[in-house]
Amino acid sequence: MVEAVVIDLFSLPADLQNNIQGLLHDMLETIEKSSSIPTPFVYIMCFQKQGNERNSEQEPLLPALRDFQSLKGRLEVVCALTTAAALYTIKQRLDEKDLSIIKVILPTLRKDLMKVYIEHLFTEVYQFEFQDLQVASDSENLQIAEPWSEGQRLPMQDVALIQNEIKMYLESLPSLKGELTIFRSSLIPDDIFLHGFTTRTGGISYIPTLSSCNLFCSSKRRDPQVVVKENLRRIANAAGFNPETFHRVKIDHANAVCVMGKMEPDWYDGIVTNQKGVTVAAPGADCIPVLFADPVRKACGAAHSGWKGTLLGVSMATVNAMVSAYGCNVNDILVVLGPSVGPCCYKLPHESAKEFHRIDPKCVRLFDSESPYIDIRRATRILLEKGGIRPENIQDDSVTDQTQNITLCTACHPDKFYSHFRDGTNFGTQIGFISIKD
User: Fold this and answer.
1) CATH code: domain of residue 22
2) Can you tell me which residues the record assigns to a coiled coil (predicted)?
3) Residue 155 lies in a domain
4) Strand 279-284 to strand 246-248: parallel, antiparallel, or no bridges (unpaired)?
């Protein structure tokens, strides 16, 4: 069942502009008659001329809107300077109401353009079907909609123009939830390395569990790649790295490591490099983003260490990759554990807890319970020390000076961090990143 209807009047052909009121009246009448209860939400996209007040753009449409009492409160006119701005505003309305099945009524000539906008601004969470704006006004015809299908593609130059329009619009949006904040470790020398751990503030993601500097997208979430890319651009601009030479691990919750410049594995939770100006990163939203730096050999790395990766030794696997690829000495490697879920909050089933208990009984609290509390940070430190990393070269939540503690519990700080454990499946993601300065 269609949950929302978008009527695109943004760029009407000349033969339809003269009869806009009659055309819109017929469409709304058909929607009202043919829809089930409740009627769908209706959003009318209109072009707003530069400098004009928003209301002045709606005036020609008002007579056609007054007769539809069943759509009262479910009908909105969205005026904007660009299609990207109008469609993104409508996306926000859809997300507020958790709507995902949308019919788009638009001129035939706009269909291929609109599909490109939708492809970039929406994810697979949403289902779209299309209806020709010039359809007859009886309900039987209006119900015949064209599902999304791969048809003739727009010329690449047109796609590039749309991409640039979307990019410029997203760059113009204000930051949400406060200023962008990056945590840095005093252990990593800033004259050699550029590094940091991001927080959830200062981006443009508006969905509550993703707000606001979410750095991960998937087909199952409502944050599209273009929004994540804009959040990353803002991080890069604030931190001083090039987002075009940014490489993030491809999570498998295991212990494979990618050495930059060699064949890239399909999946890996660690990544290392000795190339200047290349930024490597690992995400975290309870799992630990771990950063590695060797100021002697000038090499660095990042790893994603969840409970499975911790048990599989992903952090030492990353250290070993630096040793074998760049001749690093384990005595020189510095390791910093970023924000992650603490033993105060994190629980695992008893069977999984046994594995951490074998590493060190102090890694488990309430061991005899059905779901003991687990300290994946302590387990990571112990495995690193067993592998030869000096205790003083590891920074985690055991630091004496708590003003230097950047290994905060993600679940305990909803104002600062995302947390899968706290927020459920639709959680946002922060990252730890590092690069060698030019």
Assistant:
1) 3.40.50.1980
2) none
3) no
4) parallel
Average pLDDT score over residue span 120-138: 83
Beta bridge partners of 337: 290
Q: Do 133 and 105 contact (CB within 8 A), yes or no?
A: yes
pLDDT digits (tens, 9 = 90+) for 193-211: 999 999 999 999 999 999 9
Q: What is the mean pLDDT of the chain?
A: 91
CB 432 within 8 A of CB 338: yes
**pLDDT greater than 80 at residue 122:** yes
Residue 219 and residue 368 in one domain: yes
- The domain tally of the chain equals 2
How many C-beta atoms lie closer than 10 Å to residue 396's C-beta?
A: 21
CA distance 424 to 31: 36
Tell me what pLDDT residue 165 has. 98
pLDDT at residue 135, rounded to an integer: 45
Same-domain check for residues 187 and 120: no
pLDDT of residue 142: 41
For 316, residues 6+ apart whose C-beta sits below 8 A from its C-beta are 383, 384, 386, 387
pTM score, two decimals?
A: 0.93
pLDDT(126) > 90: yes
Q: What is the CATH number of the domain that holds 223?
A: 3.60.140.10
Spatial distance between the Cα atoms of 15 and 221, rounded to a whole number of angstroms: 40
Distance (Å, whole) CA 228 – CA 252: 20
Instruction: Say if CB 269 and CB 303 are below 8 A apart.
Output: yes
Tokens 């590039």 sit on residue: 160
For tokens 């459920």, name the residue.
424
